[in-house]
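Trying the structure run again after the queue cleared.
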Amino acid sequence: MQHTSKLPNVGTTIFSVMSALATEHGAINLSQGFPNFKSDQKLIDLVSKAMNSGYNQYAPMLGDLELRQAIAKKYELLYNTSYHPESEIVVTAGATQAIFTIITTFIKPNDEVIIFKPAYDSYEPNVELNGGKAVPIQLQASNGFKVNWHEVKEKINSQTKMIIINSPHNPTGSVFSKDDMLQLENLTRNTNIMVLSDEVYEHMIYDGENHQSACLFPDLKTRSFVVASFCKTFHNTGWRIGYCCAPKELMQEFLKVHQFTVFCIHHPTQKGIADYMQEPKHYLELSDFYQKKRDLFLTLIKDSKFKFAASKGTYFQVLDYSGITQEHDVDFAKRLTIESGIASIPLSVFNSNNLDNKVLRFCFAKTDDTLKQAADILNRII
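Done. Tokens:
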């Protein structure tokens, strides 16, 4: 029997395409979202210490207890809210596994899931893989990629099972305001609609703004999974370790799938991160760290032909190239990589019907030298 699937073929995502193109042509790679600088040696030493101390066998299914306690402490410190470390926090193989498991646990055939486009590329395939229907709502570049909550209200019906939100938002760098979260809370109140809140960039939010986590809103918290990432926070995207938090009754269902997918996560990494998190500055200082990089990058390209509004969160900056060319964004991104030596991500691949707003995404989680080299290239494009 031949199996068919709507899912993309292995290796065909825009990220792999652009990174391969960057490698082939020796281009500066600002496409995929990974740092090109070293992580803190202290963290690496703590993980190595855990290995040498014998933490090399299975960790508990929910995650190392000390790490779950450190996560719980973080939520109390930042959001004045609580998740019980023994029943409401689970360590996962990156945020992507948490997202997949949440969707697989709760989405059944014909369930509808509202997704805001442009969207991280794993949401929709995960919904479709489980027989659900993704209901896209297109965010408009012209209004700063803000949500039209009236449109959301119109899309909600008896089949709506879940709404996926992502703030700070990949790929646009926009963030949800307190009013956005209150609107979401009001729309889902007295319904059976769950919220999957992807908050992997929670510690990268700029200009004095505060992250509006779903856990800050009491009614919303009762129906939400909050997903986070140590990979993004501590500059180790290859470690693939994250976590999710949810009320006990939701987490009990999550574990029914989690136990048969990964069961548990790399033990020494968990021990090392648990020790590292005893100093909150390791995540509290991240916004300042990345804002300096954002500001450097934007200052360097202020006289270029690209138009932009400063990213409000994440380590991504979108640039409008409509003043340079009317080429399709995929074509222009490829041409920039091949001819100019700089790789980016075209936003149309994340949009409904591949809507092309003439916008490219650039990652500024790079060394200052790399950002300066990238800016020199962008400034020469006319």
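The chain has a mean pLDDT of 95. Worth checking whether this holds up in the mutant runs.
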